[in-house]
Design goal:
Layout: E1 11-13, E2 23-28, E3 35-36, E4 41-49, E5 52-60, E6 66-70, E7 75-81, E8 84-97, E9 101-105, E10 108-115, E11 121-128, E12 131-136, E13 153-154, E14 156-163, E15 176-185, E16 203-207, E17 211-217, E18 220-233, E19 239-241, E20 244-250, E21 255-261, E22 264-266, H1 269-273, H2 283-304, H3 314-322, H4 325-336, H5 339-349, H6 358-373, H7 382-391
Parallel strand pairs: 3-12, 13-20
Antiparallel strand pairs: 1-2, 2-4, 4-8, 5-10, 6-8, 7-8, 9-12, 10-11, 14-15, 15-18, 16-18, 17-18, 19-22, 20-21
Helix pairs in contact: 4-5, 4-7, 5-6, 6-7
């Protein structure tokens, strides 16, 4: 943990070559000492000149220990210095030390074509000496997870979470789009953490490509990542996506902190509606009850007539045939417009062994497959598929 603060500390390196009335200086303004690897350090290149300048070019020496970015266009203006008007240029940078230790940024050369007496042009170069910063490694304090946790530094991190609809009350087959906007001040886009991976056994999810943008100005810089997912429950039963903490080193408090993507409950409204309070029996429950009662009567008749079928799996086949659940799932998938879900429901509703008319079943599924893998799915007649599969069942009554 770094606790030493230099709130107004300035590290300066002045021009190496003395030019009367001219100077070039590097001014670094770290928030603390030592700084943390990956922390943004504001740096200003300031030149002061007493002559008219026709052409100029500034060169910053490459540095293995720093990444850097210019925050704003060069600011040329006149200043009164010591009672004399001088021409001043300021270039604002953000520099980011890469590793711990003593790291040096610079030097900087400013090549000038100045206009002297008699409009005579002269080529001169001013050189600002490099600045050296003490850099500490990124801390391993919780909630960072060494060695796998993503580490980055920022002065402020915010998260906004937007949803296309109420995820806890989805219509059957409906998809919810979640958009998380992650913004970090004082960090470059490549320093932001990767998009979290969200996977649940009960959830169908799709992640869109990440969008990033960089804002910068004389005030500093901020990077934004936009993460989008589409979620749909695999089954009707509701579930909850757990909260996702994202740790970072706060360069203002000098502590490891975390922001959190909140938990997200997801489910179909139809599932909640089917849960009848007070112990009352809803329509679906009554239908299942009548089916179970019918199975009991059939079993009793078979026993009384001595016609008990002894082959393995008879009870499972009877239960499957008379259960209303496969047909309900088939109809719900047909209404949803999701052809992949309809394909699964069709297979569950009518297997090849159960088909009274195998050719009709095969033709119906071939049409569905052509719609799934063809260029246009909009014109598929799901209601016709349901009718054809019902007609293809071995026994039509009750199906």
């Amino acid at each position: 943990m770094v606790r030493g603060f230099l709130p107004l500390a300035l590290l300066c390196a002045t021009a190496a070559r003395a030019e009367e009335g001219k100077s070039l200086t590097l001014i670094a303004a770290p928030a603390a000492t030592p700084v943390i690897a990956g922390e943004m350090v504001p740096l200003t290149i300031r030149g002061v000149y007493d002559t008219e300048i026709a052409l100029e070019k500034m060169e910053i020496a490459p540095s293995q220990g720093f990444d850097w970015i210019q925050l704003a266009p060069d600011d040329w203006h006149d200043e009164r210095i010591g009672g004399v008007t001088r021409r001043v240029v300021e270039r604002r940078l953000a520099i980011f030390p890469k590793t711990g230790g003593q790291d040096t940024f610079g030097p900087v050369n400013h090549h000038l074509t100045v206009i002297g007496e008699g409009s005579r042009r002269e080529e001169i170069t001013l050189r600002a000496q490099p600045v050296t910063l003490a850099v500490a490694p990124m801390p391993d304090d919780p909630p960072f997870e060494k060695p796998w946790g993503w580490r980055f530094a920022a002065s402020k991190v915010t998260i906004t979470d937007a949803l296309s609809t109420d995820p806890a009350k989805l219509a059957d087959g409906e998809t919810v789009t979640r958009t998380v906007t992650f913004r970090a001040e004082g960090a470059l886009p490549e320093m932001l953490p990767p998009r979290p991976v969200i996977q649940e056994p009960w959830l169908i999810s799709f992640a869109a490509p990440v969008e990033t943008k960089l804002e910068r100005g004389r005030w500093g810089l901020a990077s934004t990542a936009i993460w989008r997912w589409q979620f749909r429950p695999e089954t009707g039963e509701p579930g909850v996506i757990a909260p996702i903490p994202i740790p970072y080193f706060n360069t203002l408090t000098r502590r490891v902190e975390a922001v959190e993507i909140p938990a997200l409950p997801i489910g179909y409204a139809s599932f909640k509606a089917s849960q009848v309070p007070g112990g009352e029996m809803g329509a679906g429950a009554r239908l299942a009850y009548l089916g179970a009662l019918g199975l009991g009567l059939l079993a009793g008749l078979a026993l009384s007539a001595g016609a008990v079928e002894r082959r393995a799996g008879w009870w499972e086949r009877a239960l499957r045939h008379w259960s209303p659940a496969p047909l309900l799932r088939l109809r719900r998938a047909a209404r949803s417009g999701d052809l992949l879900a309809l394909r699964r429901a069709a297979e569950d509703y009518l297997t090849p062994e159960e088909a009274r008319d195998p050719a009709r079943r095969a033709a119906a599924l071939d049409r569905l497959d052509a719609a799934i893998y063809g260029p246009d799915t909009a014109g598929f007649d799901a209601a016709r598929l349901v009718r054809d599969l019902r007609r293809a069942r071995r026994v039509t009554s009750g199906a």
